[in-house]
Amino acid sequence: MLRLIPYEFSKIWRKRSFLLSVCVLLFIHLFLLWYTTLPDEETAPLSAYKMLVSELAGKNEAEKAEYIVGLKETIDGVCFVREILDMQSLESEMGNALAGQEMAEHPGVFETYYERYQSGDYLKFTDSLE
Questions:
Q1: What is the pLDDT of residues 106-123, one digit of tens each?
Q2: Which candidate, 106, 108, 110, 107, places its Cα nearest to that of 88?
Q3: How far is the CA of 14 from the CAs of 10, 47, 58, 113, 124, in angstroms?
Q4: Cα 61 to the chain's mean position, in Å?
Q5: In the 3-class helix/strand/coil scheme, how is the chain assigned residue by residue?
Q6: What is the pLDDT of residue 27?
Q7: What distance in Å separates the CA atoms of residue 46 and residue 26, rounded to the nearest whole number?
Q8: How far is CA 13 from its chain centroid?
Q9: Are 129 and 82 in contact (CB under 8 A)?
Q10: Maximum distance among all alpha carbons in the chain?
């Protein structure tokens, strides 16, 4: 019985249709792997991850955590500025009231990050905030 197993496998592997099917499936798999990793508006390109890794190289874990937390605080501040500007762009009493309320809840954040938002220097790894 055990001697039949290699023989049966060799019969399957030697068929042209099986080899062609495996090659087609491998090609489809590679194509889908490539296609699903293409960057879009919501996904950062692979080069952004490479730049981040090179930026973190040579730092210990505490420095890496501090650097990432700093980046997150900057992006959160810039997003806050963008939200306030979007509310103010509504040009209505409700938009101005909401913007004033948000600025009162987070004092100093708008002033701290407004110039950075205007200059765009918060974008280190990608071309857009998204």
A1: 788 888 888 888 887 777
A2: 110
A3: 6, 42, 51, 66, 53
A4: 21
A5: CCCHHHHHHHHHHCCHHHHHHHHHHHHHHHHHHHHHCCCCCCCCCHHHHHHHHHHHCCCCHHHHHHHHHHHHHHHHHHHHHHHHHHHHCCCCHHHHHHHHHHHHHCCCHHHHHHHHHHHCCCCCCCCCCC
A6: 97
A7: 23
A8: 42
A9: yes
A10: 85
pLDDT confidence of 69, banded at 50, 70, 90? very high
Report how far residue 84's alpha carbon sits from residue 114's, in angstroms, rounded to the nearest whole number: 10
User: What is the Cα gyration radius of the chain?
Assistant: 27
pLDDT digits (tens, 9 = 90+) for 5-37: 888 888 888 888 988 999 999 999 999 998 887
Q: Which residues contact 83 (CB under 8 A, 6 or more apart)?
A: 102
